[in-house]
Structures are given as structure tokens and as C-alpha cells.
Amino acid sequence: MDEKLNQLKINKNAKQIKAEIISNKKVGPYHHMVFAVGDIALSVRPGNFVAISVGGENSASILRRAFAIYRAIDKGLLGGTVELVVAPHGSGSKWLCSLNVGDFVDLIGPLGTAFGIPTTPANTMLIGGGYGSAPLFALAELLKNRGCRVDMVLGASTASKIYAPLEGKRSVSSLTLSTDDGTAGVHGQITESIPRLIREFNTEVIYSCGPMSMLSSINKIAQDFDLVHQCSVEESMACGIGVCMTCVVPVRVEDEIKMLRTCIDGPVMDGAKIIWDKESAIEAITK
Amino acid sequence: MSTLDFSTKIASKRFSNPIFTASGCASSGQELSQFFQLSEIGAVVTKSIMTKARNGRITPRMAETPSGMLNSIGLQGPGIDVFLERDIPWLVENNAKVIVSIAGENVDEYGVLARRLRSVQGISAIEVNISCPNVENRGQVFACHPDTASAAIESVRRNIGGELPIIAKLSPDVTDIVEIARSVINAGVDGLALINTLLGMVIDLNTMQPKLGGKTGGLSGPAIRPVAVRAIYQVHQMFPNTPIVGMGGVSNGRDALELVLAGASAVSVGTATFGDPTAVIKIRDELQMLLLERGFNDFRDAIGFAHRASS
Ligand SMILES: Cc1cc2nc3c(=O)[nH]c(=O)nc-3n(C[C@H](O)[C@H](O)[C@H](O)COP(=O)(O)OP(=O)(O)OC[C@H]3O[C@@H](n4cnc5c(N)ncnc54)[C@H](O)[C@@H]3O)c2cc1C
Ligand SMILES: Cc1cc2nc3c(=O)[nH]c(=O)nc-3n(C[C@H](O)[C@H](O)[C@H](O)COP(=O)(O)O)c2cc1C
Ligand code: FES
């Protein structure tokens, strides 16, 4: 069918459920939270996210909040779980972090696209900024099982903001840390170490997740080295299910620029096709 | 328990129940069909469509506000050709009742769109979104002046011919909404849709600049509901025979009933869908219960009930 007429649908496995919180633990500045989600866990792919209602019944916060899935485990008859790493940021995420085991939330998932996996074993580098590391551990495991080399690079402003649980590290061949204040690993911006590591590990594919400014810098490096770059982007989302058109990014589709919804065509997107620079984006969409 | 006739009419068209989606809040319908059958609701009102494909505005496009949100989408859409080729057939195939919303940059564009839609099968009505900037008049919004509002509607009326009911969607950002309603009724509309969003702004304290890429945005959600109730009440009082599709901040059955009592013949649900994809279904069921509890056995008896002298 003509590309233009393609029916763009939301993740076909997405369901709306009441999910019970079965664990909520503070890990540094984050909360590691586990939700009972039944058979939703079966259809989760690394890169997918969930959208959760916040604030309770009479909340003045009317929009859902998006969180990347850190891990999904299917326990057969016992049902499945989905795990998130939540940073208490504003009122909605703080409310979520304050919930107790046994509380229920209204959750929709799995949503969005997943990281693409190379068809033949490749040397991969997974780069995460802050809680952006969350979806990368499940990806690392999958890549390792497919015979890929996995080098992980995690960065944050300060040591405590690097999320790198022990269990997450077993799938990686190397782990490099970097902090802006030098409290852990390499002193400096995460992107400063990347070119050297790419040469060292003969990286062929880059996966990234973190703040947009970091993704944009990584994309420049990926282009300099002519590498495939799959990134998980983070735009403000009002609905998470494709009906509001607020979450768009400008993307090159054939010879046109289109504003694609990151909740449907993302969050995982081809970095090379995104128009990263704000000025060019404005020019492209207003011409 | 007694039964309720829950059907409603907008001009010549009948709808099985009075709960619709709101334009721009259900995209083209497909996304929501993952959560419920579109034939379960009265109608799907599609995102306002223009002649050409449009990319809309730069991000950020939204800001949450207390019990509401600002949006500045800028009418992003695929353009009428793709819409007719892809979206309408899909909706018809899935047994949805369809109300097509159209938007124009100038008076002629409304006419061109009406002509494209006049012979399309499976459409129940046209909603004319006149809350758009008129490029031929310094970007002034059509809906803000009686002359430009009626000019856009006349352009549709001339080109639509025959059957399809025309619904004019009005902006609450005017001094006297009854005056605007009068002008479009005189221009020949069959119904009114009240209300579109109210213009607002949020300033980000970190950047100390307007938060939205488009600087201003439309306010929607529960925060605007009393404005919607007032607008519907005022217009229904003056024009009780013109059906109104009411909307603005409806998030449960109670809210929907409030708009009906003020004078709405149907209720569109917008922002509530972002928080809950099945909001329309819940609102439909709650409204039905509330009507029965109050002894109504015909939905239409509740329309404008608040205007009756209390005894
Ligand atoms: C695909 C995706 C994955 C994400 N994964 C994670 C994760 O794994 N862990 C985590 O802690 N956070 C994650 N976020 C960010 C998280 O959604 C925001 O921190 C959260 O929405 C903030 O809500 P709030 O009420 O606490 O903050 P407020 O600032 O009060 O939120 C106000 C509004 O802005 C929106 N908003 C604010 N910050 C962001 C943001 N950074 N991204 C998107 N929308 C925002 C909110 O949705 C809300 O509508 C993710 C965001 C996206 C889009
Ligand atoms: C994200 C968004 C997009 C909208 N797009 C349109 C549109 O394309 N055409 C239109 O007539 N109204 C549009 N509206 C307005 C709604 O249809 C509705 O009139 C308004 O939001 C009030 O209802 P609500 O509070 O239930 O959302 C939009 C509203 C929102 C929030
Ligand atoms: S968040 Fe609503 S369309 Fe993506």
C-alpha cells in the first residue's frame, strides 16, 4: 500500500487495566516500582512504555504520565509484572512514588515502538542518561541472547542519579560511567567519552535513551561514524494513545518532513531521520 | 426498571445516543477502537480537516493546567484527499456514525471542503470549525465576528447542497456568543457546537518564556465547564429550536447531564479521553443512569430542562 495510506495504529497489545503495586523501593533519588499487570507482561518489548493516571479520583491532574518499562516478567499462572524506575519530578510522579504496596493505579500498556534488533550479531553500544538507562537493561539482555556484543555507557549529573542495578549489569561486556561533577566514572558530559569508546569497541549500532539534548549530541556522533542510531525520545504527552497530537517530533519521511507522534511512531525512532535542530525544524514545518 | 429512549436528533439525523467524541480529541477514530467499538457511541467527530496536509505547530504543544490543559496543535492533519481515501472508509467499515469537522484559512476553503464532502457516503453531518485564523483578515478568528462567522457558513451552505446538516462550532472568546449564534443561524446552519477552547498562556519559570511553541494555546478540560454551561444556556434560551452539540470539560455523567439540562441535544467529550480512553463509554452509561434516576424515559425531555420555570 501507498506509504501515505498506511494505517498507523497504537501498539496492538495495549490494554487499560487497574494494576496493583506489589513493590515500591527507593533507590537513590529514584523509586523502583513493581506492578501486577497480568498478561500485559507477555507482550512487552524493550523500549515500550506505559501511561498511568495520577493524583487519584478527584485529581486536578487530568493527563496521564508516561514511563519507560524497565523490565517485564511473565510468571505464568501467577500473572506478570512490569517494573518502572520513577524520578519524583513534579506533582504526578511524586504522587506515584508516594503510593503503597496494595494500592492500584489505572495503567495503559504496553505502548509505543520497541528497539529494533540487528538481524545478525553486531557490536552494540547502549547509552543512557539518568533514568534513561531504565529500558536499556532489558534491551541488553535481548541483544546478548542474540549474540551481540553489548557495551553500556551510563551518565548523569551526579553519581546517585545513575541507575545501574546489579542484576541489570550481567548482560553487558563493559560498563562505563560518566558524571558531570566527577563523583563517579569519567568526569564530564556523557557524550565526551563516546567517540573514544566507539573506536575501542568497534561499535556498529548505537541505542540511546535520555534527555533530548543528549540524544541530539549522540546523533551527531553516530552520523560522524556512520552508525545506525536508535533512540528513545521524550516529548510531552497528553494521552499516550495517539489521539491528541501533542507528542510529535519532526521526522524525514521519504522526501517530506512530517510531525510524527512519539507515542505511536516512537518513542524508539531512527535518530538519523529526526530533525534535531529547532531552527531547521521550524523552517521545515512552516515552509 | 423503566426504560429510556436514549436517541437524539441533530436536524434530520438520528443518533443512537447523545455522547460523541470532540473534534481533535479522537484523531480519526482508529486509535480509540482498540478500547471500544466506535458504534457504541452516538458519533465520532473527526479532527478538523483542511484542503492540504498540514504539519501544525512546533513543540511543546501542551501544558497541563489545574483541571485542564492548553494545546497548540495548529490543525495538523493529512488533508482532505488522504482523509477521504483512508479515514472515512475505515470509519464506515467499522459502523461508526461520522460527523466531519472542517476548517479553513479563508472563506473559499470552507466552500471547497464542503463540495468535496457533499456526495461522500456515510457522513451524518458537517461540523464547521470557525475558530481558525482568517489569513485574509490579519489572522482574525472567523468565529469572533458575526460577519466573518456567517461568511464561512454561507460558503459551506452554497456548496453542500441538499441533505447534510451543518453544525457551526463557536468560540467562547467573544463578548456576546448569542450574537454570533444569531449570525450563523441566519446563514443557514442546522445546529451549533458549543464550545471550542478558550485562548490561554502558560509561562515557564525556568526559561521565563511562554511554555508553548505557539506561545498561546486553547484551554480545555473541567476548568472550562462552567463557561460551556453558561454559553449553552444563553444560546438555548434565545434559540430553543436549534440543536446544540455541547462540550467543554465533560468528564463524567454528571457533567454531561449539566450540559443537557442547559440545552445540549448531544454532548462531545474531548480532553477526558486523554485521561481515560474509555471515558466516552463511562459517560454514556452514567448519563443514562442519571436520567433514569430522575424519572426521564425520553432523553429529549431533559434537553434544556433548566429553562423550565421551577414549580
Ligand atoms: C516515553 C517516555 C518515557 C518516560 N520514561 C520515564 C521513566 O522511565 N522514568 C521517569 O521518571 N520519567 C519518565 N518519563 C518522564 C515522565 O513522564 C515525567 O517525568 C512525568 O510526566 C512528570 O510528571 P509530573 O506530574 O511529575 O511533572 P509535571 O512537571 O508537574 O508535569 C506536568 C505535565 O508535563 C508533562 N511532563 C513533564 N515532564 C515531562 C517529561 N520529562 N517528559 C514528558 N512529559 C513530561 C507531564 O506528563 C504532565 O502532563 C518518560 C516520558 C516519556 C514521554
Ligand atoms: C488537543 C486538542 C485538539 C483539538 N482540536 C480541535 C480541532 O481540530 N477542531 C475543533 O473544532 N476543536 C478542537 N479542539 C477543541 C475540542 O473539540 C473541544 O471543543 C474543547 O476541547 C472543549 O472540550 P473538552 O473540554 O471536553 O476537551 C481540540 C481540543 C484539544 C484539547
Ligand atoms: S500523546 Fe497524545 S498523540 Fe501522542
Task: Please give a quick description of this structure.
Chain A has 287 residues and is of the alpha/beta class. Helix content of chain A is 18%, strand content 33%. In chain A, helix 3 (190-201) packs parallel to helix 4 (212-224).
Structure description:
- The complex is a heterodimer of chains A (287) and B (311).
- Chain A has 287 residues and is of the alpha/beta class.
- Chain A folds into 2 domains: 12-111, Translation factors (Elongation Factor Tu (Ef-tu), domain 3); 123-286, Rossmann fold (3-Layer(aba) Sandwich), CATH 3.40.50.
- Chain A contains 5 helices and 16 strands.
- In chain A, the strands form 3 sheets. In chain A, strands 4-3-7-1-2-6-5 form a 7-stranded antiparallel β-sheet.
- In chain A, helix 4 links the parallel strand 12 (205-209) and strand 13.
- Chain A starts with 14 loop residues before the first strand and ends with a helix.
- The model of chain A is unreliable at 1-7 (pLDDT under 50).
- With 311 residues, chain B is α/β, with parallel strands linked by helices.
- Chain B has a single domain, classed as Alpha-Beta Barrel (TIM Barrel).
- Chain B is built from 8 helices and 18 strands.
- In chain B, the strands form 5 sheets. In chain B, strands 3-18-17-12-11-8-7-4 form an 8-stranded parallel β-sheet.
- Chain B starts with 7 loop residues before the first strand and ends in an 18-residue tail after the last helix.
- The mean pLDDT of chain B is 95.
- The interface between A and B is large, with 40 and 43 residues.
- Bound molecules: flavin-adenine dinucleotide (FAD), flavin mononucleotide and FE2/S2 (inorganic) cluster.
